[in-house]
Write a structure and sequence with these properties.
Helix content: 25-40%
Shape: globular
Strand content: 15-25%
């Protein structure tokens, strides 16, 4: 079934669209364009939907808004937003009544006419997805990059050709109910995350596994060799398995040894490039490149790998150098919304940072982060609702020395940045690497990073 036939198949059905965000706005527009009966369900008021709400209403959409937006899901088909899991009682009840639960991304995957490379994991998804896209573009492919990155792809289906490649970053929220079947699936790594939404860690892991569970035998799963759950995934993967590894050679995949990245096919290794060719810093970014190389075996050349590694400067909000003022370098690592991501940054910074930590509580333990902060940070500025639990993790660490690790707390974000600047000397670096999501103060990590950048730009010379 193609895009037009799919839309027409929904005419005459009662359709509920939960959440009127980035991906669902064009979805609603497309459904209304063929005469579908569409109800937008959102917890916000109509006024807060702005121009998009007005346009949808003019085109014939119905609205069920406010705190009870999930209480009357009497629909034949429900497109859910990623943040509302299918385990929510109202969605479970709707499914039991016979409603079809789906999403914009699940519909895209079912209809996409070209090769799909899908990436998930706790850390590194966006960089790995973007590097994969850049490698393919350098090799001459037309690439469609989207998914959790924020680019809605469903309504672009008419322009996607068979020979193109779709690169999709997929979150655990998107994958929770998906029946996707990507040609190549990548799991970068797994660590506890989003436990404020998932019922437990196993629910989070199970959601991630949906990226490969429905693959065919001729399709590929790329796994991190050092990840503790890798062996279990290998056993139930329907297709071929490749690895990327920084813990020694692999039979099929990509590994690093003595500063050289190798590709292996059935045990035969050949060098691809030096790790020093990779422009963006950090061992975790070497892993991101290796994951992309393993996924793209047979699709790109070593020359493509070297060219992109030497020129790609990274994704905004990921260890992004914002400014140097009075000899102090400011880095925006707002994407670091979990302890494991912040720890990876601590191992990659060129000097111990004055680090700004804290944000929304996702119910993830900070014990390991506390140890790493004590060992690898010069000073700490805490800000946000997790300030206290992070402080406790740091002070309980066996490595904590209050005389060597100054620590202050500021509720206001601007004050936190200005305080970090006041603590810095020429040659120091200040890093926003919160180890938490942004929802206590900001709409998302990008808004947090953009505001950090704008504040840093206003800091005066000392």
């Amino acid at each position: 079934m193609d895009y037009t036939a799919y839309l027409n198949s929904l005419v005459g059905k009662r359709i509920g669209v939960i959440g009127f965000g980035v991906s669902n706005v064009p979805l609603v527009e497309a459904l209304l364009s063929v005469g579908c009966d569409v109800t937008v369900c959102d917890q916000r008021s109509f006024d807060s939907l702005g121009e998009n709400g007005e346009k949808a209403k003019a085109a014939g959409a119905n609205f069920w808004l406010g705190a009870e937006y999930l209480d009357h899901l009497d629909f034949d088909v429900i497109f859910r937003t990623p943040g509302v899991l299918p385990t929510v009682p109202q969605l479970k009840a709707a499914a039991e009544r016979g409603a079809l639960l789906t999403s914009e991304m699940e519909a895209f995957c079912a209809l996409c006419p070209c090769k799909i490379i899908a990436i998930t994991g706790s850390d590194g998804k966006t960089t790995t997805s973007t590097v994969t896209s850049e490698l393919l573009k350098h090799a001459g492919y037309t690439v469609h990059l989207g998914g959790n990155i924020g680019t809605p792809l469903f309504t672009r289906l008419p322009e996607i050709q068979h020979g193109d490649v779709a690169v999709l970053e997929l979150s655990s929220f998107q994958l929770h109910s998906m029946m996707c079947r990507p040609d190549v699936a990548i799991i970068t790594n797994l660590a506890p995350n989003h436990l404020d939404v998932h019922s437990d860690y196993q629910d989070y892991v199970t959601a991630k596994q949906n990226i490969y569970r429905h693959q065919r035998t001729d399709q590929v799963l790329v796994l991190n060799r050092k990840d503790a759950l890798t062996d279990a995934f290998t056993q139930d993967a329907p297709g071929k398995v490749r690895f990327f590894s920084n813990v020694g050679p692999v039979e099929n995949g990509v590994y690093v040894e003595d500063g050289v990245i190798y590709r292996t096919v059935n045990g035969t290794a050949a060098p691809i490039l030096q790790t020093s060719d990779i422009r963006i810093p950090g061992a975790h970014n070497v892993e991101n490149y290796m994951a992309a190389f393993a996924a793209l075996e047979g699709l790109i050349s070593n020359e493509d790998c070297v060219a992109v590694a030497r020129t790609f400067s990274g994704v905004p909000h990921r260890m992004e150098l914002v400014r140097e003022v009075s000899g102090v370098r400011f880095y925006n690592d707002s994407i670091a919304s979990s302890p494991s991501r912040t720890i990876a940054g601590l191992h990659a910074w060129p000097a111990p940072p004055i680090i700004i930590l804290g944000g929304h509580d996702k119910h993830i333990p900070f014990d390991e982060l506390g140890d790493e902060i004590c060992l690898r940070a010069k000073a700490v500025v805490l800000c946000g609702e997790t300030a206290q639990p992070i402080r406790e993790a740091i002070t309980k660490s066996k490595h904590y020395d209050p005389e060597k690790l100054p620590m202050v707390e500021k509720d206001d974000f601007r004050e936190a940045i200005e305080t970090a600047y006041s603590m810095a000397q020429p040659g120091d670096l200040v890093a926003l690497s919160p180890a938490c999501s942004s929802f206590d103060k900001f709409k998302n990590f990008a808004e947090r990073g953009n505001i950090f950048r704008s504040i840093v730009e206003t800091l005066p010379e000392k």
